[in-house]
């Protein structure tokens, strides 16, 4: 076990854990979007940035992402320092420009005092924040039918060659927000392998939604921490 | 024919050296990529054909070498042992060179380098200012050897460092590298000895030695020249590195856009294996080490160390957080040392001559020498290697020959897209890692882009942002979205759509990107913006508040007019204009028609009497001129 100080509060954690788990275990919340406890940390959204320092560093801090930073005995952590909060605001401001109509992003941004983006809003608004939860789930417990393609601002979640993925088994990861309406619906064979997550019962409208999407997660909740930050109020 | 021991290598070296000496003179034809593009292959061919069967053939040997560095004056030919340097050599000059210089011992003045200020013709390579001030360590053999000939390389000292290293313990080799003060030459400048030490300490049977040959900075070509011109220096360094840290596998990641480097490296590896300098039981030491080549993924971000390793693993080149160092868990999660091409090229020389020899050059914290690609508005464009600590003024003026057209110097951009601009006031800055960082720039891989008064610093920042928006991997929000929004703002600035508060928005986003981005691409992307804001804020203010470009470059903000009192009707502007926007007959006053003018500035550059000036578009509109 290691002992750290987070926001002035002593917190213990198992050796080998990441800072995010330790903080949440100690009742200190750090916002995330691309994190899922069933998956390896991704480090894409940057919301979980915190300031860390150690004895003997003379107060010099470095900013690290809590989801991927290993706990260390004696670590001193600040989850709400001025530059951490400012950087989170910049991230949310940028996300709001990308996804100006997404309820979850608007809600998160409002929480940090941002009601309108200071940047140029996306002329083709999307819900997809490229958190890659869907593709990572598809990789790790699915069939690797989809991936993130292209780089930079053109990056998107897509199947190979932009065609209906032949490997897709229609598991509850789909339909994902950025799935173009023009693509044929994936084959909807029921998952039979024990590896695949159980079916999510359809929502009130009858549509099935992804539970592996940060921007539009519904259905069976995964972890309390995920639900707290990312799920809109909806049946659990 | 394997060389079985260190003693056998000494004998091999002596034989190679005496074979070289048997050629009484050599004609070294630069066949680096730059000179090849300028027709050097035909020149080399002409020498080979002309010398064959001539009286000179018995004594003179022509060689295709790697990059001599003076790219501005290529194709370059150096004759040894006389040291005569001929510039801008054409195939039709070759017969005359063989007859007059090789056989006759006389020089041909028109082919000699002409000193721009004095007009004097300089005969010898060692006296040409471009070369005189250089100290070549990483590039010690480039231009002297045929990179495809391992015997030539060995005769010039290749693998001498390896022989010495294998007679030392790994700890002793590490000590020499530590004593040298060598810091990574790829840009970050991290202590090479520290990196090797932590890999040596990592407990694993299997470790990797990687060479980063992904050179992606626009304007940088030093690694290309080293890989093309002396691939053995890289191989030798990597074997020594493997010996020091306990690794047996080396991989060179070469960017796919360097085909000649791939060819020469591949050839070098084959030759080295034939001689037993790579493979099992090298020189009878019992040490195994082999190297393979991996071609790049076609992305700037693949030069980032963690992205490079992912790319080597067959995955998409995307960086990851580096809280666990690659020396503990790198390629395939195994202990890995990744160093730049130039760093590896330095290693052999350091082990051969000793760490203290290297540390005797340079400054207190930046030891040794550094390769620089000097480009932009400088007279002597090319590749140079200098001891750390020379000033920017010495580099740009003494070696570079000053600004083209003797126009006023404005700034020099160092460090590529992660670097910054250094203004005239800091020209006497000694070049080293610390000094450049203090000035708001960085060493980077050694690119130096010289800029004159006809450069808009807002446009310079925009150029680097455009490059990086296309190269961002897109994984993290601050870099992917931030670069996109930065470019949107800069596109607005150069088009005259700047709004009050833009500069503050740019500064805030810069801080957010520096603190929030996952890797150094995003973190350092704002550097050109921040450094131009630091030294040239007035230009930004002019763009935002007055819709003006003080340098007269941004086309949406600038136009041109002919000054009636000064125009002598020489017609030069008429000929230069690409859109026929100028009318006028010879000896009569010429006129620029605003409705056709595209503000390219070609007329301005062409006018010999400074009878054309640029002015803000709104000023022209206020004059009521159509």
Polypeptide structure, described:
With 236 residues, chain A is of the alpha+beta class. Chain A has helices at residues 19-25, 82-98, 103-111, 133-140, 224-230; strands at 2-6, 9-13, 49-53, 62-65, 76-78, 147-149, 156-158. Chain A is 20% helix and 12% strand. In chain A, the strands form 2 sheets. Chain A has a 5-stranded mixed β-sheet, sandwiched between helices. Chain B is globular and about 85 Å long. The termini of chain B are far apart. Chain B has 626 residues and is α/β, with parallel strands linked by helices. Chain B is built from 25 helices and 19 strands. Classes of the chains: A alpha+beta (236), B alpha/beta (626). Chain A binds chain B through residues 41-46, 49, 63-65, 68-70, 83, 86-87, 89-91, 94-95, 97-98, 118-120, 129-130, 132, 148, 150-155, and chain B through 299, 301, 316, 320-321, 323-324, 469-478, 480-485, 488, 505, 508-509, 511-513, 515-518.
- Going by helix content, strand content and strand pairing, the class of chain A is alpha+beta
From the spread of the alpha carbons, the general shape of chain A counts as globular
Poorly predicted runs of chain A: 175-210, 217-236
Q: How many helical elements of chain B? A: 25
Adjacency order of strands in the biggest sheet of chain B: 12-11-15-13-14
Helix percent of chain A reads 10-25%
The DSSP helix count of chain A reads: 5
Rg measurement of chain A, Å: 19 Å
Offer a concise description of the structure:
The complex is a heterodimer of chains A (236) and B (626). Chain A has helices at 19-25, 82-98, 103-111, 133-140, 224-230; strands spanning 2-6, 9-13, 49-53, 62-65, 76-78, 147-149, 156-158. With 236 residues, chain A is α+β, with helices and mostly antiparallel strands.
């Amino acid at each position: 076990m290691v002992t750290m100080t987070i926001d002035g509060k002593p917190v213990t954690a198992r050796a080998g854990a990441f800072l995010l788990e330790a903080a949440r275990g100690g009742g200190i919340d750090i916002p995330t979007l691309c994190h899922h406890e069933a998956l390896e940390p991704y480090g894409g959204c940057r919301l979980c940035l915190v300031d860390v320092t150690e004895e003997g560093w003379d107060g010099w801090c470095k900013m690290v992402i809590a989801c991927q930073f290993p706990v260390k005995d004696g670590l001193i952590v600040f989850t709400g320092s001025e530059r951490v909060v400012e950087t989170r605001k910049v991230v949310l401001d940028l996300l709001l420009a990308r996804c100006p109509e997404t309820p979850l992003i608007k809600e998160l941004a409002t929480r940090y005092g941002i009601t309108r983006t200071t940047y140029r809003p996306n002329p083709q608004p999307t819900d997809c924040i490229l958190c890659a939860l869907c593709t990572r789930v598809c990789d790790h417990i699915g069939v690797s039918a989809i991936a993130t393609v292209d780089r930079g601002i053109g990056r998107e979640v897509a199947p190979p060659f932009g065609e209906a993925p032949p490997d897709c088994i229609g598991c509850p990861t789909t339909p994902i927000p950025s799935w173009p309406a023009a693509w044929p619906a994936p084959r909807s064979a029921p998952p039979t392998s024990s590896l695949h997550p159980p079916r999510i019962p359809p929502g009130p409208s009858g549509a099935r939604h992804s539970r592996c999407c940060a921007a539009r997660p519904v259905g069976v909740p995964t972890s309390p921490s995920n639900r707290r930050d990312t799920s809109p109020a909806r049946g659990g | 024919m394997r060389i079985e021991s260190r003693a056998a290598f000494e004998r091999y070296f002596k034989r190679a050296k005496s074979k070289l000496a048997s050629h009484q003179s050599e004609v070294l034809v630069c066949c680096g990529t730059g000179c090849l593009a300028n027709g050097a292959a035909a020149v080399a061919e002409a020498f080979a054909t002309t010398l064959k069967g001539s009286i000179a053939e018995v004594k003179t040997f022509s060689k295709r070498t790697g990059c001599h560095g003076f790219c501005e004056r290529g194709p370059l030919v150096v004759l040894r042992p006389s040291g005569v340097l001929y510039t801008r050599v054409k195939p039709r000059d070759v017969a005359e060179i063989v007859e007059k210089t090789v056989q006759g011992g006389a020089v041909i003045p028109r082919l000699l380098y002409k000193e721009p200020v004095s007009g004097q013709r300089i005969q010898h390579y060692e006296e040409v200012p471009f070369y005189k001030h250089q100290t070549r360590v990483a590039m010690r053999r480039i231009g002297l050897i045929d990179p495809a000939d391992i015997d030539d390389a060995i005769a010039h000292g290749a693998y001498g460092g390896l022989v010495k290293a294998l007679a030392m313990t790994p700890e002793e080799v590490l000590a020499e590298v530590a004593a040298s003060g060598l810091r990574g030459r790829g840009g970050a400048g991290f202590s090479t000895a520290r990196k090797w030490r932590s890999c040596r300490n990592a407990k694993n049977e299997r470790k990797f030695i990687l060479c980063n040959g992904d050179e992606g900075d626009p304007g940088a070509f030093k690694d290309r020249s080293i890989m093309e011109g002396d691939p053995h220096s890289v191989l030798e360094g990597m074997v020594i590195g493997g010996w020091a840290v306990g690794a047996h596998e080396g991989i060179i990641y070469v960017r796919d856009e360097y085909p000649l480097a791939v060819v020469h490296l591949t050839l070098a590896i084959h030759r080295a294996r034939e001689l037993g300098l790579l493979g099992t039981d090298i020189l009878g030491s019992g040490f195994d080490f082999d190297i393979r080549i991996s071609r790049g993924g076609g992305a700037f971000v693949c030069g980032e160390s963690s992205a490079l390793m992912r790319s080597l693993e067959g995955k998409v080149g995307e960086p990851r957080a580096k809280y666990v160092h690659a020396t503990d868990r790198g390629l395939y999660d195994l202990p890995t040392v990744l160093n730049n091409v130039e760093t590896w090229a330095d290693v052999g020389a350091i082990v051969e001559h000793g760490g203290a020899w290297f540390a005797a050059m340079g400054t207190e914290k930046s030891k040794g020498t550094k390769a620089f690609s000097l480009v932009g508005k400088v007279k002597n464009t090319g590749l140079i290697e200098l001891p750390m600590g020379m000033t920017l003024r010495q580099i740009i003026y003494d070696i570079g020959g000053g600004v083209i057209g003797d126009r006023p110097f404005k700034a020099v951009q160092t460090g590529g897209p992660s670097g910054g601009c250094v203004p005239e006031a800091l020209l006497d800055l000694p070049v080293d890692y610390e000094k450049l960082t203090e000035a708001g720039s960085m060493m980077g891989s050694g690119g130096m882009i010289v800029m004159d008064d006809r450069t808009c610093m807002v446009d310079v920042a925009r150029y680097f942002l455009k490059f990086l928006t296309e190269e961002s991997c897109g994984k993290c929000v601050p870099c992917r979205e931030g670069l996109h929004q930065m470019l949107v703002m800069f596109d607005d600035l150069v088009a005259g759509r700047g709004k009050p508060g833009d500069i503050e928005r740019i500064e805030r986003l810069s801080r957010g990107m520096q603190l929030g981005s996952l890797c150094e691409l995003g973190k350092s992307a704002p550097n050109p913006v921040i450094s131009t804001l630091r030294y040239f804020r007035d230009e930004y203010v002019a763009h935002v508040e007055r819709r003006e470009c003080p340098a007269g470059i941004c086309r949406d903000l600038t136009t041109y007019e002919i000054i009636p009192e000064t125009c002598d009707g020489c017609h030069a502007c008429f000929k230069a204009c690409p859109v026929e926007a100028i009318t006028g007959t010879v000896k009569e006053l010429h006129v620029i028609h605003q409705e056709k003018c595209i503000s390219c500035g070609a007329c301005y550059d062409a006018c010999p009497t400074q009878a054309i000036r640029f002015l803000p578009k709104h000023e022209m509109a206020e004059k009521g001129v159509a």
